[in-house]
Amino acid sequence: MSAVAQRIDANDAEAQELTDGFHLVIDALKLNGVDTIYGVPGIPITDFGRMAQAEGIRVISFRHEQNAGNAAAIAGFLTKKPGICLTVSAPGFLNGLTALANATTNCFPMILISGSSEREIVDLQQGDYEEMDQLAIAKPLCKAAFRVLHAADIGIGVARAIRAAVSGRPGGVYLDLPAKLFSQVMDAAAGEKSLVKVIDAAPEQIPGTKAVDRAIDLLKSAKRPLIILGKGAAYAQADDDIRALVEKSGIPFLPMSMAKGLLPDTHPQSAGAARSTALKDSDVVLLLGARLNWLLSHGKGKTWGEPGSKKFIQVDIEPKEMDSNVEIAAPLVGDIGSVVSALLARIDGDWQAPPADWVESIRSKKEANIAKMAPKLLKNSSPMDFHGALGALKNVIKERPDAILVNEGANTLDLARGIIDMYQPRKRLDVGTWGVMGIGMGFAIAAAVESGKPVLAVEGDSAFGFSGMEVETICRYNLPVCIVIFNNNGIYRGTDTDPTGRDPGTTVFVKDSRYDKMMEAFGGVGVNVTTPDALYRAVSDAMDSGKPTLINAVIDPAAGSESGNIGSLNPQSVVVRKK
């Protein structure tokens, strides 16, 4: 048992070893392998952070709870263990809630632990400090939510939260710990016995034999098969089997952005540079850890060619995901590792590779698109455009394939997805299913903490603004993070104007801002660059040094397009007002 209090019993004058809620929560987390907590200290959890640190848990303190929550979420994705975010009550809890909801949407295992006001005061609405019914608010936005009221139940509460976060389809869990819980005292031996070590938190879910047969038969009948790898496939960490399935089957594969690197983007079977052709012309599509949501046009529409021209095989651990948008001809319910192993066992002697004309059509389209893009990536103009700048970063990652790339923005995100090749799994982290901005610094910090690898965060200037103050956190912990801000003076572009002439345009920022000075203010390295060649040198130096660095990359204010590749989702007014 960790540090405990001692008390002299007045009746028998014998010392009794005691423990309290603070130490029971810490011991429960340690018992289940939690070694890092992300959060923001304050009432009523300040001492908890200090005690956790004293007990050997690494506590990374942020400047805003949403960024701490994003860090915990991506830590869960990288490790397959629930990332822990610790916040204060009410406003701090609400700040963390966006990250919790985003983690649930993206299937990242995460536990948000928040201190809260006392139940008897909250329920009577008597006006406690930061009074809020946090459990009720959290429930609709996460996979599960629990409240612990008694110290003897802390072990069970933590165990339930861990199991809920990682079992089945992973997601966010909320654990509510009222302030009074932390100071509750109980017998130390009884407290130790109350703790629970979670056994087999995410058990294998084996697919049915008939389901595997159905999927294999459909793949064998295909003339133009395609495998789509989603971030669920990256999360599964079944890397060797997934690669073997792709290569033994001979089927072209298309990685979603956070699945890039499961097989190198330069792999001969990669259809990444021929995405439109692969989606439109394929006849049987195996979805491996990918969902038919907006990122894949819901499996229908012009993206997918003629209506009814596709048959889908979907692998997912959640049965309700099947038929969510279109009919799934061969649903495969199970964990990805087990399903891939079962499919791989059926790629045997009678298996025939896809028709040569299909493979050739993908190859030729890919090569044509790569050749068309190449001159844009070599452009060394000043100020830079997006393609020239990303061409420089493409080379940085090629030379450092084990570095982790964090990416967010509009054009900065959309173009980087296609331009920067990835070579290893779980090395590209971005905005994911919701497309939410502001994940950058939280993801970058957690990636550096969890992996120990150098991190390159490529940020649009607008996206950076959501979490930019965390550059102080990066400097405080001396993390090997290099931030590149694509600075074109605004959201999408820096050329918008106010028709009345009164204010700046709604999408315009301060002209010629020097974000690099922010990093210098906290003791990090700041660099201002105006050409792709200078950008390449600056980023290479930063990645090699491991020093916290921010590079202000000056992009032409006229470069960029409205909303990047999702401009069609931005409604346009059809009414013209008469003056």
Please give a structural write-up:
Helix 17 links the parallel strand 15 and strand 16. Helices cover 38% and strands 17% of the residues. The protein contains 22 helices and 20 strands. It has 3 domains: 174 residues, Rossmann fold; 155 residues, TPP-binding domain (Rossmann fold, 3-Layer(aba) Sandwich), CATH 3.40.50; 187 residues, 3-Layer(aba) Sandwich (Rossmann fold). The chain is α/β, with parallel strands linked by helices and 579 residues long. The relative contact order is 0.09. The strands form 4 sheets. It has a 6-stranded parallel β-sheet with strand order 4-3-5-6-8-7, with helices on both faces. A 6-stranded parallel β-sheet has the order 16-15-17-18-20-19, with helices on both faces. The N terminus is likely disordered. Helix 1 runs parallel beside helix 7, helix 16 crosses helix 17 and helix 16 runs parallel beside helix 22.
**CATH top-level class of the largest domain:** Alpha Beta
Number of domains: 3
Q: What is the number of helical segments per DSSP (H or I, 4+ residues)?
A: 22
Radius of gyration: 26 Å
- By CATH, the superfamily of the largest domain comes out as Thiamin diphosphate (ThDP)-binding fold, Pyr/PP domains
Strand order of the largest sheet: 4-3-5-6-8-7
Question: Would you identify the CATH architecture of the largest domain?
Answer: 3-Layer(aba) Sandwich
